[in-house]
Amino acid sequence: MTPADRGPDTRQLIAAFVGLADTLVDDYDVIDLLDRLVAHSVELLAADAAGILLADPQGRLRAVASSSEDAQLMELLQIQAEQGPCVDCYRSGSPVAVPDLDAAARQWPRFVASLAAHETYRSVHALPMRLRGEGIGALNLFHRRPGALGPTDIALAQGLADIATIGILQERAIHRGEVLNEQLQTALNNRVIIEQAKGVLSQLGGLSMPGAFDRLRTYSRERNLRLSEVARQVVQTDLAADVLSAPYRRRS
Amino acid sequence: MVDLPVTRALLAIARDTRDDRALAERICRACVTGLDVDGAAISLLTASTLRTTLWASDPTADLLEELQFSLGQGPCMEAATTGRPDLTPDLSDVTDTARWTVFAAAVAEQTDGIGAVFALPLQWGTVNLGVLDLYRRAPGSLSAVQLRDLVGAVEIATLMLLGLRTNPDGEGVNAWDGSWAGRAEIHQATGMVIAQLGLSATDAFARLRAHAFAEQRLLGDVAADVVARRLRFTDADEPGSGTTGRSTS
User: pLDDT tens digit string along B56-74?
Assistant: First the structure.
């Protein structure tokens, strides 16, 4: 069985897209939207992990969202700032499919070695995030099984990557010259704030980094607050105590 | 690959630059040379109310900073408050200047004509060091490539200035390393030290750097130890962290 064998069921698909559209017309936080998108990518494409990388102004990719905040996946995403399917996808502007990573060791030695060290994923897909011909980043999908995604799944994955692009541009009303680069930089900077807030919560609550992120996300979603605004307050005020004492149910 | 002249000029700044005014001058000059603007200035927000103009390329650039500080409004103040660039390609457009009409009126009265003003916050995570202000006599937007160059250069400028502010031992901008920006562990470790010592983000970052410097280790490795809870900062001075220098905010 290859990853292509299991398409998402229609109801799942509708729920995901309606949910995303609902977010886009509301006042939302871009990192939170990207976090929802990677979760949907995993679910709808039967992936084992997914991540989004955005290009900084110098064209270097930085990881801004991943389906799991564990250090290993983040590292795997970050290695691709230098080599791997994501950076190739970003540079070429076309999807990159790697049905079997064993065959790609020569092409991307560091990336494949890092994967092999953890015996985790066997196939990778990267979908470009593009706006009017300009690349801004890539969506990365990881499967434990080897195999290429079918055309329908690739189209779906590209649709999710396109929503991410729209979401970044749309985050706040863009007026005058406030364009793409500024929105991108804001997203990258918000990610820095979130990482700092994870550190604060991790220290005060004795939590792992993924655990700290989960608390942050649950707290802001349940209260309908912006993820990066909550993160900012965790870093700059004593909101951390409130986040840590709020009722919390671990996500399965 | 597109040429980004301001980014390129910043990356070429001598690694032993130790004076923040000299650094600000280099950054402003790079903007005036590399972009289609007439003047540039960098002002620091040292405390919530105290502001210092580090460097201004000419008297007009200096006056624009002065006016904003005395009036308490303007694109620079806007950028500092919101943490987002405030880009005004045409100062005569009243919808563009509605956020700071008093400043716009003062500019019209006291200068011989400013067409466009661009203010970009010098921001690292929650830390806002100050603002880079650019002006042009003729109105008009920056191109997409110019803006990309500027946004990238501003991030480098911020990390360089932050590097000087958290300077453990006069090592200049040498310790600045572009890989900071993308290293999640460095930001996470900063957060952990904020909580361990009750410090601001800048001071927590200064402690991390001081430790790395004293132990002759890479900042990323020290950060990884903090995140893995192999290293914990306490109120007692860490070796080598007694000289965190001028770090405030």
Answer: 999 999 999 999 988 989 9
Chain B within 8 Å of A207 (Cβ-Cβ)?
no
Q: Which fold has domain A187-245?
A: Arc Repressor Mutant, subunit A (1.10.10)
| Structure-token pair, residue A2 | 């290859």
Q: Do B195 and A181 touch (CB under 8 A)?
A: no
pLDDT in tens, A48-92: 999 999 988 888 888 899 998 777 787 788 887 788 999 999 999
Residue B35 structure tokens: 């972009």
CB contact under 8 A, B125 and A195: yes
Whether residues A202 and B191 touch (CB distance < 8 A) is answered with yes
| Two structure tokens written together for B155 | 């991030």
The domain ranges of chain A are: 8-171, 187-245
Tell me the C-alpha to C-alpha distance, in Å, between residue B202 and each of A20, A67, B128, B176, B229.
36, 30, 10, 14, 21
List A129's β-bridge partners, or say none. A137
Angle between helices B144-165 and B20-34 (to 10 degrees): 170
Q: What is the DSSP track for A80-147?
A: TTTSSHHHHHHHH-S-EEES-GGGGTTTSHHHHHHHHHHT--SEEEEEEEEETTEEEEEEEEEESS--
* Nearest residue in B to A172, CA atom: B84
Q: Is the pTM of this model over 0.80?
A: no
The pLDDT tens digits for A121-149 are 889 999 999 987 888 899 999 999 999 99
Tell me whether A169 touches chain B (CB under 8 Å). Answer: no
Name every chain B residue with its beta carbon within 8 A of the beta carbon of A179. Answer: 144, 147
Nearest by CB to B151, which of A81, A182, A240? A182
In this structure, chain A runs to a length of 252
Domains recognised in chain B with CATH numbers: 5-165 (3.30.450.40), 174-243 (1.10.10)
Residue B243 scores a pLDDT above 90? no
Q: Which of A78, A196, A226, A237 to mutate to test the interface with B (most CBs of B within 10 A)?
A: A196
Domain A8-171 CATH assignment equals 2.60.200.30: no
Q: Measured between beta carbons, which residues in chain A are less than 8 angstroms from residue B141?
A: 176-177
**Calpha distance A209→A74 (Å, rounded):** 11
